[in-house]
């Protein structure tokens, strides 16, 4: 036993590249004793081989040969290392390679199964169908081939099955191969890959088998198939793998039967993946010969189920006849002993049937005994009639369920096994029609195990079916079961790799102790993916004290998880959200979509899934998986966009609340914040989102106010109290703020202003009062008694607290800053101290100092992250990098200009810095509707220009070096070399070509010398005229490539980029507009240099008065529990409306119509089959009635002719009356 396990382990761990181990584990058989065949006149052995083909050892033992009368494989053959294995290429077939292996008939099936799964990479089967048949293809009826094509292969495709036959181009094996081939043309490659046909044939029967022999393996070997349409024993090119069983015989059938049975029995004890049942194995009998009776009997004794195709001929007809007719025949007094030994009457009936079908068999008694044994195990046999009404896959399901009931005597629900098989095969259609049609009372315990199987194996249709039929997800999903689902995540997936990495960190913190995956790692993974968008998930489950270091925290967590964690018995508070996150991490699109449909807060949940998937795609290495994640993320973004669109069309005011409401489900995240983190540009492009941003941008002022009015009011502040600028009326603010959430059927007040700017900015002040609806301090009222601000204060705040006012102020002041900067550089830039700097330059220094203070405030004060996280977040913005560059250059230039020795350097640095500050204007005008998209296009084109410059630099350097070397033989001056190698060829592109210098035929008025001493001293060298023709040619080629090819390539690239980005530039601009609005919403009211006053005010409020900041909660609204519940219910109703509309659209597509039409046609075909069945039964009944009528007529005639009875008239004919009476009955 230990040796066997060692061999299996060796097979499992052998590397794929090294195949030298195969002959050590798999053997072939050779005949070692020549036993003369009495019918061959001594020329053949009973093994089928000729005398000459036997080794000398087999022919030399005359004594053993004389006393042996019957050849036996185990006694008269020996095992040797196999010499035929590897890959098989059918010459001229154009098919993919197949695998083959020659093995002994006594080989352990476990080793073979391991090779098939691990080395040949065959998918784990959900079902194994072993097809047995004996007649040639020409004798197979056409309807049998149709059953194989439309029934068997189709069912195998839907269940992911292996089909095992002999694999030869004869009989049923050839029909199955053709059915697989025909089905491959009608389905996709992915679906076809689920059908794996495997051939198990006797080695001695394979034609041209010597082509496969190669002791070192064949990878691949070419196999030539006979060019004939008739049956032959060649291997069929439609099979995926071949197991060539060698029992030492040549040209003898049946050598593979014992091994095939043992392999099927071994597979039936395996369990596919995380399924709840073993792999079901179904034997299918089509036609067949009398020699197959022994194999059928052995298989039935091993409790293997059989499906017999009635009417296919041969053994199949015999078995169907005895199963259907013998058991219904009247029994004598010994009928109650039917399950024991057969009595003489039963044996006679079976003998009659056997002689009817196999009258020419020699050993009739032995055949009758075998058939009698088959009859005693008839409970494992199911007869399939082609005229039946049930589909073939449904029949297979019932056969396997019936066989499982024979093995398990006690079952709480007789349909549980049938459900497990349907889940394993992923046949939800069978489950709906056969199990969930309303006739079965399902309990929670019956569905629990199958629900886990469906979740782990990604079968969302079954999950939906179980939920619709009474499974309570709140009772099902506990945190312990959720941990079990996370443990089943593939370790090769991106989420599995990340979880294992986090688990490894915890194991390192626990001194290398073995630990299981827990929700602690899941919580950390979600935190890493979501960042600071929301609070960590599942963190409240672990009641562990905070530690000073990460290592101590890991030790405490390991200690906590080793104890009895009671949270594992607790049911999940939000089970659908937990399952949604679990499905998204595995990139299971259909499962995640179903969980999203069942989950609340659909907009935020879809955006959350989009965020997680896009973060995972950045970490994914494989291109296919990365693309799949991106596509699923885009799908969730569109789902969020469409659901929000439905909400916005129904009630705009509620949709605004939806965007900025803090979600308890997602840890105080908001839709806007999640969409920003997920880079959901399509979502931001929605009119509803832009409408809310516009309301925030304009504050309490009317949208569309002319900019000149704002600028004039900023110059003359008292104009704010006039009617120059229109503000929202207090009545409108009262209506918008105090209005309770309307019902889903309220479609009025589209686009009304729900929140004033003050509400968004200072809502945190009094949201704690659950009974009051708050108002701002700028004129709106509440239902309590608020403190009323004077009009002149509220109007002042309404104007200066709006982000648009802050933006205009910053723009105006920035232009003044640039004007002052330019004035200092051009007019008032004095020498170093003590003569300078001037007063204007000191003002410039102070101005830049206030800008630095604002950057520090934006980086370190705003937000709740750590310093490192804030710096990384700050560096992610390109314009922040520009600010750092501009400030750094200014400081460097300031330091240099203070010293006489570096004064000129400092002036140069400050000049360059002025260019950087000026370019910063581009970001300011990104808010403009026309300029914003063009700025995006400009950024894309700059990226394209870098690629152009790369090609230009390569060609420029190549031409410049060659041109300089050809014109001047020796020029040691680095300055002249640099100018002539790079700078001069660059000017050639723009038309500045010094023809006099390049073309020696032209006069060049310049003093030069050929004296090396003078040249080394810096004198201009004279030109070399020997290669001047080549210089001219290179110039022509250079101008051709640069001015025509490269420049036109750049133009074409710019044109493509413009046309591509122009289509989506508006979407990009709307997304960037949000960033700018957030920036100016969080900025102090005053602009530099007066912003220093706001900074002093903030410093006093935060450090002295301890007033918390409300701007760290950007665009966030904390609704009371009652209002939040109403809003969630309203959103759920809008989601249902959206799903209903999408379902209607989907049902209107051509594909869905075709599916419905196909279902109707299938229903009609099923009804036609039922009608045919009824017609067949009526014909049989009519035949019986005719027989009965004839019998009665004969009896009457016999009685009439009797001498004891005298009749005065002839007896009337009763045939017509009897038939009519029977019809009426």
From TrEMBL:
What is the recorded membrane topology of this protein?
A: Multi-pass membrane protein
Which UniProt keyword terms apply here? Ion channel, Ion transport, Membrane, Transmembrane, Transmembrane helix, Transport
- According to the record, the segments passing through the membrane are 800-824, 884-901, 907-926, 946-966, 1029-1054
State any single GO MF term.
Answer: ligand-gated calcium channel activity
What InterPro entries does UniProt report for this protein, alphabetically? Answer: Ion_trans_dom, TRPM, TRPM-like, TRPM_SLOG
Major subcellular site: membrane
Start and end residues of each Ion transport domain? 814-1065
Where does the TRPM-like domain lie?
A: 434-686
Can you list the GO cellular component terms from the UniProt entry? plasma membrane
Location relative to the cell: Membrane
Domain TRPM SLOG: where?
Answer: 99-372
The organism's place on the tree of life at top rank: Eukaryota
What are the boundaries of the region Disordered? 1206-1225
Q: Which PANTHER family match?
A: TRANSIENT RECEPTOR POTENTIAL CATION CHANNEL SUBFAMILY M MEMBER 4 ISOFORM X1-RELATED (PTHR13800:SF47), TRANSIENT RECEPTOR POTENTIAL CATION CHANNEL, SUBFAMILY M, MEMBER 6 (PTHR13800)
Name of the featured protein: Transient receptor potential cation channel subfamily M member 4
Query: From what organism does this protein derive?
Result: Cirrhinus molitorella (mud carp)
């Amino acid at each position: 036993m230990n040796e066997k396990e060692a061999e299996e382990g060796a097979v499992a761990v052998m590397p794929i590249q090294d195949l030298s181990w195969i002959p050590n584990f798999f053997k072939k058989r050779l005949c070692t004793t020549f036993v003369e065949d009495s019918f061959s006149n001594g020329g053949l052995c009973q093994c089928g081989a000729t005398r000459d083909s036997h080794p000398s050892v087999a022919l030399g033992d005359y004594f053993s040969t004389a006393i042996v009368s019957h050849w036996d494989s185990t006694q008269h053959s020996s095992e040797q290392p196999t010499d035929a294995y590897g890959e098989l290429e059918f010459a001229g077939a154009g098919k993919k390679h197949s695998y083959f292996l020659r093995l002994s008939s006594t080989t352990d099936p476990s080793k073979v199964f391991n090779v098939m799964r691990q080395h040949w990479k065959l998918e784990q089967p959900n079902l194994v169908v072993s097809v047995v048949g004996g007649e040639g293809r020409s004798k197979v009826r056409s309807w049998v081939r149709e059953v194989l094509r439309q029934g068997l292969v189709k069912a195998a495709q839907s269940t992911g099955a292996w089909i095992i036959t002999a694999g030869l181009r004869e009989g049923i094996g050839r029909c199955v191969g053709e059915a697989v081939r025909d089905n491959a043309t009608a389905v996709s490659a992915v679906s076809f890959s689920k059908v794996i046909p495997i051939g198990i044939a006797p080695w001695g029967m394979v034609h041209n088998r010597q082509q496969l022999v190669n002791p070192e393996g064949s990878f691949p070997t070419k196999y030539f198939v006979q060019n004939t349409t008739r049956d032959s024993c060649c291997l069929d090119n439609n099979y995926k793998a071949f197991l060539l069983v060698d029992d030492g015989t040549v040209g003898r059938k049946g050598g593979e039967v014992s091994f095939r049975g043992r392999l099927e029995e071994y597979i039936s004890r395996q369990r596919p993946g995380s399924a709840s049942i073993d792999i079901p194995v179904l034997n299918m009998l089509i036609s067949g010969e009398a020699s197959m009776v022994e194999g059928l009997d052995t298989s039935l004794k091993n409790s293997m189920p059989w499906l017999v195709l009635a009417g296919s001929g041969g053994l199949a007809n015999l078995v169907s006849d005895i199963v259907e007719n013998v058991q219904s025949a009247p029994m004598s007094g010994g009928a109650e002993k039917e399950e024991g030994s057969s009595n003489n009457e039963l044996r006679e009936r079976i003998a009659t049937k056997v002689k009817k079908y196999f009258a020419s068999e020699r050993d009739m008694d032995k055949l009758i005994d075998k058939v009698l044994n088959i009859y005693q195990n008839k409970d494992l046999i199911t007869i399939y009639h082609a005229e039946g009404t049930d589909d073939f896959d449904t029949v297979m399901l019932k056969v396997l369920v019936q066989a499982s009931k024979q093995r398990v005597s006690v079952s709480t629900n007789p349909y549980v096994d049938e459900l497990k098989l349907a889940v394993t095969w992923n046949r939800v259609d069978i489950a709906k029609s056969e199990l969930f049609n309303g006739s079965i009372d399902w309990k929670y315990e019956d569905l629990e195990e199958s629900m886990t199987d469906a979740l782990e194996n990604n079968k969302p249709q079954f999950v939906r079916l179980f939920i619709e039929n009474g499974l309570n997800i709140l009772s099902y999903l506990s945190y312990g079961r959720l941990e079990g689902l996370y443990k089943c995540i593939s370790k090769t997936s991106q989420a599995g790799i990340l979880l294992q990495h986090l688990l490894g960190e915890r194991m390192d913190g626990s001194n290398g102790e073995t630990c299981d995956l827990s929700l602690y790692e899941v919580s950390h993974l979600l935190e890493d993916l979501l960042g600071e968008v929301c609070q960590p998930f599942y963190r409240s489950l672990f009641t562990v004290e905070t530690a000073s270091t990460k290592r101590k925290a890991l030790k405490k967590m390991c200690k906590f998880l080793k104890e009895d964690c009671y949270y594992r018995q607790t049911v999940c508070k939000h089970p659908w959200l937990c399952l949604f996150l679990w499905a998204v991490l595995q990139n299971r699109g259909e499962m995640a979509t179903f969980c999203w449909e069942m989950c609340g807060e659909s907009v935020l949940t879809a955006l959350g899934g989009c965020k997680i998937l896009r973060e995972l795609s950045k970490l994914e290495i494989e291109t296919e998986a990365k693309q799949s994640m991106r596509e699923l993320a885009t799908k969730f973004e569109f789902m969020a966009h469409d659901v929000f669109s439905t909400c916005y069309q129904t009630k705009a005011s509620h949709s605004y609340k939806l965007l900025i409401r803090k979600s308890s489900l997602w840890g105080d995240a908001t839709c806007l914040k999640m969409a920003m983190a997920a880079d959901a540009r399509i979502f931001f492009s929605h009119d509803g989102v832009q409408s809310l941003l516009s309301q925030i941008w304009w504050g309490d002022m009317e949208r569309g106010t002319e900019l000149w009015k704002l600028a004039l009011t900023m110059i003359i502040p008292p104009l704010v109290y006039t009617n120059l600028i229109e503000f929202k009326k207090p009545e409108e603010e009262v209506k918008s703020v105090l209005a309770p959430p309307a019902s889903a059927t309220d479609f009025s007040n589209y686009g009304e202003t729900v929140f004033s700017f003050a509400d968004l900015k200072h809502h945190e002040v009094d949201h704690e009062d659950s009974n009051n609806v708050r108002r701002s301090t700028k004129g709106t009222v509440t239902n309590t008694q608020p403190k009323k601000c004077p009009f002149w204060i509220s109007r002042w705040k309404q104007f200066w607290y709006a982000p648009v006012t802050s933006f205009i102020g910053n723009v105006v002041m920035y232009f003044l800053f640039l004007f002052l900067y330019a004035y200092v550089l051009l007019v008032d830039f004095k020498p170093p101290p003590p003569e300078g700097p001037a007063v204007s330059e000191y003002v410039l220094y102070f101005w830049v100092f206030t800008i630095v203070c604002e950057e520090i405030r934006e980086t370190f004060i705003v937000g709740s992250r750590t310093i490192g996280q804030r710096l990384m977040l700050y560096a992610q913005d390109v314009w922040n990098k520009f600010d750092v560059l501009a400030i750094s250059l200014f400081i460097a230039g300031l330091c240099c200009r203070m010293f006489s020795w570096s004064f000129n350097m400092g002036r140069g640095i400050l000049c360059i810095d002025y260019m950087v500050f000026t370019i910063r204007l581009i970001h300011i005008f990104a808010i403009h509707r026309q300029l914003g998209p063009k700025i995006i296009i400009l950024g894309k084109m700059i990226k394209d220009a870098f690629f152009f410059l790369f090609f230009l630099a390569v060609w420029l350097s190549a031409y410049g070096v060659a041109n300089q070397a050809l014109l001047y033989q020796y020029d040691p001056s680095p300055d002249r070399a640099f100018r002539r190698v790079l700078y001069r060829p660059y000017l050639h592109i723009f038309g500045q070509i010094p023809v006099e210098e390049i073309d020696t035929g032209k006069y060049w008025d310049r003093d030069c010398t050929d004296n090396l001493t003078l040249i080394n001293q810096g004198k201009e060298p004279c030109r070399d005229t020997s290669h001047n023709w080549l210089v001219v040619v290179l110039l022509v080629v250079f101008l051709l490539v640069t001015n025509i090819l490269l420049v036109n390539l750049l133009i074409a690239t710019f044109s493509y980029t413009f046309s591509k980005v122009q289509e989506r530039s508006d979407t990009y601009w709307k997304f960037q507009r949000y960033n700018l609005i957030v920036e100016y919403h969080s900025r102090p009211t005053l602009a530099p240099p007066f912003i220093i006053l706001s900074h002093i005010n903030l410093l006093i409020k935060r450090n002295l008065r301890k007033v918390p900041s409300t701007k760290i909660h950007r665009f966030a609204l904390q609704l009371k529990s009652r209002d939040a519940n109403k809003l969630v219910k309203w959103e759920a109703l809008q989601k249902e409306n959206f799903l209903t509309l999408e379902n209607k659209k989907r049902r209107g597509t051509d594909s869905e119509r075709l599916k419905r039409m196909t279902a109707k046609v299938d229903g009609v075909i099923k009804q036609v089959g039922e009608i045919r069945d009824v017609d067949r039964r009526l014909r049989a009944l009519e035949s019986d009635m005719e027989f009965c009528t004839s019998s009665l007529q004969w009896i009457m005639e016999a009685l009439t002719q009797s001498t004891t009875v005298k009749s005065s008239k002839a007896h009337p004919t009763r045939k017509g009356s009897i038939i009519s009476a029977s019809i009426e009955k």
